[in-house]
Amino acid sequence: MAIELPQPRLPKVAVPRLLDWGADQKAPQGGAYQRLNRLGNRFALDISYPRLKPEPDGRILASRLRRAKTEGALFPVPQPGLSVGVPGNPVVDGAGQAGAAILLRGFTAGYQVREGQFFSIIHGGRRYLHCASADAVAGGDGKVTLSIHPMLRIQPSNGAICEFAKPYIEGIVGGQSIDVELSIAKMQVPSITITERA
């Protein structure tokens, strides 16, 4: 089970990155470029923490980082300036979905999902991070068809929970070691990267 990394304060910087497994193929002799999309695009999140008080913030964060290195990390995706509102309890509406759109139900009637808004889908005990490709508004029945990016990497089960109020990235912590600079006044945590497993 992934370890949730604490947020004593907002991180100094958190940068979501799209990892693209597709490629642009260059034609020989001046021909047109061709885009080859492949399944498996996913996100990584680069996080820089501010200097922390050693006790208790630094101690707890260092402990959780060490555990997350082997057990996986969980971190809420910051969306500065976005008023998420009250999305309700959105879930996947129907099994067997694939591609770049997903049917959802359980939204508050009239809830507006914004282009670029992140959300996570929980499937098989793991979170998968996505974002909306276009604005969409839930109908009076709480249902919406949402264009998403990247394409679905799994076929979520009917009723799978979708986290819009507080989306998370779940994945591995990059690097070979976890180094935390200890000092009497403040503690410096290195920048870390969480990369989705799938």
Number of domains: 2
CATH architectural category of the largest domain: 2-Layer Sandwich
Strand content: 35-45%
Query: Going across the major beta sheet, what is the strand order?
Result: 1-6-15-16-5-2
Report the CATH topology name of the largest domain. Phosphorylase Kinase, domain 1
CATH class membership of the largest domain: Alpha Beta
- Mean of all residue-level pLDDT scores: 91
What does this molecule look like?
By secondary structure, this protein is mostly beta strands. The protein folds into 2 domains: 3-24 and 33-77 and 170-196, 2-Layer Sandwich (Phosphorylase Kinase, domain 1), CATH 3.30.200; 88-166, Beta Barrel (Elongation Factor Tu (Ef-tu), domain 3), CATH 2.40.30.290. 9% of the residues lie in helices and 37% in strands. It is built from 1 helix and 16 strands. The protein has a 6-stranded mixed β-sheet with strand order 1-6-15-16-5-2. A 6-stranded antiparallel β-sheet has the order 7-8-13-11-10-14, with no helix packed on it. β10 and β11 (126-132) form a beta hairpin. The longest helix is centred in the N-terminal third of the chain and has 18 residues, at 54-71. It is globular and about 55 Å long. 30% of the residues are buried.
Topology summary:
Blueprint: E1 3-4, E2 13-19, E3 23-25, E4 34-36, E5 42-48, H1 54-71, E6 73-76, E7 88-92, E8 101-107, E9 112-113, E10 118-123, E11 126-132, E12 136-137, E13 144-149, E14 162-163, E15 168-173, E16 192-196
Parallel strand pairs: 1-6
Antiparallel strand pairs: 2-5, 3-4, 5-16, 6-15, 7-8, 8-13, 9-12, 10-11, 10-14, 11-13, 15-16
